[in-house]
Specification:
single chain; about 950 residues; alpha/beta; Rossmann fold; 4 domains; eight-stranded mixed beta sheet; seven-stranded mixed beta sheet
Length: about 950
């Protein structure tokens, strides 16, 4: 242990300091302040404390107790005679100096609790006593005393009165900044400089003020126009937070100055129509048609309500044109957040935007949803991960201080602010009063500059109110009488700001009214009212993905997906290359050795080989590959090994990323322990990049339960609601092996229930070659539909399921797998129909019993159902009289209920299909292995019972 009291530099400091003896408390308090926040003290002291020696070689922060003991020991050794003790006045001044520094620090930590953030002035926030002078041992008598200001931006020394004025204007005005929770000192200093250098809000020129009023006039004007013209219709008004439009416009224009090319936004319904018209450039004429129910769609889908629709446009900024995209979204408020992140990541990779300086995500939240929905936390958790980072998102909380009818501070959250969850990623939080448009503008500037400087998330908490009910037909005073009595008495933000500008001489009353009239006339004209819009014919947006070749295309019945034998050998040779000296684990080395034999035809092809070969062949053909999921690199079942690890030093290597010197991207990610946010991210990615096969893999199939909202609202219905295509692939490990209710079923019944209008493809391949062709088909075909694949578990090592090399060098994916050629078709009396792993159980029982009168037909594609292929296969057995659907899932689950009518349609006329499988069950599977086997044997007995 280092003896600080014997340190020469420390003793030298002490011997020359006026802080000896009775003033040791000052230095001790100063060090305590340093440990709490190094930026709060004078740079000279900070530099000294930074240079203190390490303790036990572990840390540069010497423990507080060691410093304190050193102070006391040196003080005792060097204590002067009583007559030489410094005067109490000097000691008192030194102690107060420390208290002033602590006061400065307190305002940085807690000044937001006294900020004037609530336009309604109804907030009840906990007291912050450490913002009072007396808390720090200071009094009104000290206000004219000059003190050191430490790291406070401004004069090095100032009277306490001036220091207090600086702190109050900076931290207790209409902006409340929370940033002292950030662990990075450079970020804190940067934010301190931004805030403290202007003492609150900068003085904007008259032109900027007039511009702000125009934006408030537009935001309010649209809402009043719609309120009068379409009485009682839902529009989820922005009234009470109109400054959002000015905030977003500043973010867009300022991002253009940075050289940004694309801005992707996501938001729920509150204020969405206002954003579409006043920022995105959707014409009022288009919006009015939607209100009148006359909007013209393509007629190919169901459409959606007007406040769910997406939009894109181009705007002119000081740095050139910027493409704006507002993501479509359902009413599941926060689920659009990770979708935007995925879309942005795809755009950034397309532009090779490594640092996020070309594509910016902006996500707009409601306060109740931000605090209440877990996907927000999941999305924050992704924000700095290498596989998911969008290099920083600007989050805007439109804080209405109410959730439908729920009082937020009493019932909707356990935190002081709705934004507190963002502290988990050290994001700065800038609370701002929505009725102060200049403060809103300043906060937008800081937020974007922070994001561009540090490439991290930042939060703007725009605190306003909701002038009407949840929807315009709702009566809010029933549940919040006090709040709405106050709201009815308030002038709008536009009215308030207009009065301020008239008082300042920036505008006169006629100028204010001219803005209102001009905007109303523009709405009547029906043309775009958003400023700086670029006409479509002058758009320079040329770096988007080409979706035209996929739009309106039906997926073909057959796709050529085979790969020549020589190409297989070449790809496997390249897949097997490892860096010199790279030592594989013996078990993995055996896997790679066997893959070489498989390529030569010496061993049948297993599932891991076929899957990796499919990816390698797609990379060779020019398609990128992205795979994510929990443990996807190795594979949950020790089968994929797309990432291998050097047993000498633990370094990782990805062979598929190193096939060729120039090749498309290959990324395989071991994801965070999330399903909802990760699946939504991958969906967003897949809707943005049709040239990448995007695969999300559940650790077990039913873990997708946690992401059901993504499946229901986006994957299954996105094309019908929003005409948005996606080629996302979902891998759901499925198979009954006695592992219990949570590790057996991928819940195929749920996906099949969602299938209609050719919206997605659901398959359950039973051989590695089938999986190989299925993955290649997904990219080669000129259509893009989500693909749900129920992947194997125990089959991964079942040699009976393995494929021959010729199965990948010939043919393609077969939707129906019947009996091989040469079977005695006239002997068949019963046909067993099935899907998935149960086929091998049925085949084994047939071998055991010698039942040559039974044929087994596998349905490999459950949707779109291959009725013609099945009917064709069944015609091979003209003497069959019994047809049985066999499944390992309970009767009320699996494919039976959603598929039986399709099976009947494919049977010979007059025939019926019977059921053999587990009985109905509330749980997906039993937890007792012996009961599992008992049910399996009963299933097989039923399937092979004597002919009637």
């Amino acid at each position: 242990m280092h003896d600080l009291a014997k340190d020469r530099s420390f003793r030298a400091l002490w011997s020359t300091s006026h802080l000896g003896g009775a003033n040791a408390a000052y230095l001790e308090a100063l060090y305590d302040l340093y440990l709490n926040d190094p930026t709060a003290i004078d740079p000279a002291w900070r530099a000294y404390f930074d240079g203190l020696p390490r303790v036990d070689g572990q840390t540069t922060e010497v423990s507080h107790s060691i410093v304190r003991d050193a102070f006391r020991r040196i003080g005792r050794e060097a204590a002067p005679a009583p007559a030489a003790v410094p005067a109490p006045v000097a000691a008192d001044q030194e102690r107060k100096q420390v208290r002033v520094l602590q006061l400065i620090n307190a305002y940085r930590f807690r000044g937001h609790q006294r900020a004037r953030l609530d336009p309604l002035e109804l907030w009840e926030r906990p007291k912050a006593p450490d913002l009072d002078l007396h808390y720090h041992g200071l009094t009104a008598g000290d206000l004219d005393t000059v003190f050191e200001t430490g790291s406070l931006v401004g004069p090095r020394r100032a009277p306490l009165r001036e220091i207090l004025d600086i702190l109050t204007r900076t931290y207790c005005g209409t902006i409340g900044a929370e940033y002292m929770h950030i662990t990075d000192t450079a970020e804190k200093r940067w934010l301190q400089s931004c805030l403290e250098s202007v003492r609150g809000v900068p003085a904007y020129p008259a032109e900027v003020k007039r511009r702000l009023l125009e934006r408030l006039t537009a935001a309010e004007g649209l809402e009043r126009y719609l309120h009068a013209k379409y009485v009682g219709q839902k529009r989820f008004s922005l009234e009470g937070a109109e400054s959002l439009i000015a905030l977003l416009e500043e973010l867009v224009q300022r991002s253009g100055s940075y050289g940004m090319k694309e801005v992707v936004m996501g938001m729920a319904h509150r204020g969405r129509l206002n954003v579409l018209v006043n920022l995105m450039g959707k014409t009022p004429a288009e919006l009015f048609l939607e209100f009148e129910g006359k909007a013209r769609g393509s007629g190919n889908g169901t459409g959606d309500v007007k406040y769910h629709l997406g939009f894109s446009s181009d705007v002119q900024t000081p740095g050139g044109q910027v493409h704006l995209a507002l993501a479509f979204n359902p009413s599941h408020l926060e689920i659009v957040g990770p979708v935007v992140q995925g879309s942005v990541r795809a755009r950034q990779e397309r532009l090779r935007d490594k640092y996020g300086v070309r594509v910016l995500p902006i996500v707009i939240h409601g306060d109740a949803a931000f605090a209440g929905q877990g996907v927000v936390m999941e999305t924050f958790n992704m924000s700095q991960l290498r596989g998911y980072s969008a290099k920083g998102t600007v989050h805007v909380i439109v804080n209405n201080q109410i959730g439908f009818t729920t009082s937020l501070q009493q019932d909707a959250r356990s935190t002081l602010y709705a934004s507190d969850v963002a502290k988990m990623v050290n994001a700065p939080i800038l609370h701002v009063n929505a009725d102060d448009p200049e403060a809103v503008l300043f906060v937008a500037e800081i937020a974007l500059d922070y994001r561009m400087t540090f490439h991290k998330d930042v939060i703007i908490d725009l605190i306003g109110y909701r002038r009407h009910g949840h929807s315009e037909a709702d009566e809010p005073s029933v549940t919040q009488p006090a709040m709405y009595r106050r709201i009815r008495s308030l002038p709008t933000a536009r009215e308030r700001y207009a009065s301020e500008l008239v008082a300042q001489g920036v505008l006169d009353e006629a100028g204010v009214e001219a803005q209102v009239s001009s905007y109303r006339n523009a709405l009547d004209a029906g043309a775009s009212v958003a400023p700086n819009m670029v006409p479509r014919e002058r758009s320079r947006y040329t770096y988007g993905a080409d979706w035209a070749r996929y739009v309106g295309k039906a997926c073909p019945d057959a796709v050529e997906t085979r790969v020549p034998r020589e190409t297989v050998r070449e790809l496997v040779e390249r897949m097997s290359r490892l860096p010199e000296g790279f030592e594989l684990h013996p078990n993995v080395a055996k896997v790679y050795e066997n893959r070489g034999k498989m390529a030569a035809g010496a061993l049948p092809l297993d599932w891991g080989f076929a899957e990796n070969l499919a990816y390698a062949s797609l990379l060779r053909d020019g398609y990128a590959v992205r795979i994510s999921g929990q443990d996807s690199g190795r594979g949950t079942f020790f089968h994929r090994h797309a990432i291998v690890y050097n047993q000498k030093d633990g370094t990782a290597y990805v062979p598929l990323r190193n096939l060729y010197d120039e090749q498309p991207r290959f990324l395989v990610i071991n994801s965070l322990l999330s399903e909802e946010a990760v699946l939504a991210f991958e969906y967003g990615y897949a809707t943005t990049d049709p040239k990448t096969i995007t695969v999300w893999e559940a650790q077990f199939g039913d873990f997708a339960n946690n992401a059901q909202v993504v499946i229901d609202q986006f994957i299954s219905a996105g094309e019908q609601k929003w005409e948005r295509l996606s080629g996302l692939v979902m891998f759901l490990p499925h198979g009954y092996e006695g592992q219990g209710p949570e590790h057996s079923s991928g819940r195929p019944e749920r996906y099949l229930q969602l299938c209609a209008q050719q919206n997605m493809t659901v398959c359950i391949p039973t051989t590695p070659a089938q999986l190989f062709h299925l993955l290649r088909r997904q990219m080669i075909q000129e259509c893009r539909k989500p693909l749900v694949v129920f992947t194997p578990k125990s089959l991964l090592r079942l040699r009976h399921s393995f494929s021959a090399l010729d199965d990948v060098t010939q043919g393609g994916f077969e939707k129906i797998l019947g009996e091989p050629e040469g079977i005695e078709a006239d002997a068949i009396r019963r046909v067993l129909l099935c899907a998935g792993k149960v086929y091998y159980d049925l085949a084994e029982r047939r071998r055991e019993t010698g039942r040559n009168d039974v044929a087994i037909v596998r349905v490999e594609q459950l949707y779109p159902f291959p009725a013609e292929s099945l009917a064709r296969e069944l015609k091979r057995y003209p003497r069959a009289t019994e047809f049985v659907w066999c499944q390992e899932e309970p009767r009320n689950q699996g494919a039976w209920y959603t598929t039986q009518h399709r099976l009947r349609a494919a049977l010979p006329k007059g025939r019926e299909v019977q059921y053999a499988g587990r009985p109905t069950s509330a749980a997906p599977a039993v937890g007792d292995y012996h009961l599992h086997l008992k049910q399996l044997h009963e299933l097989l007995d039923d399937a092979f019972k004597p002919l009637a």
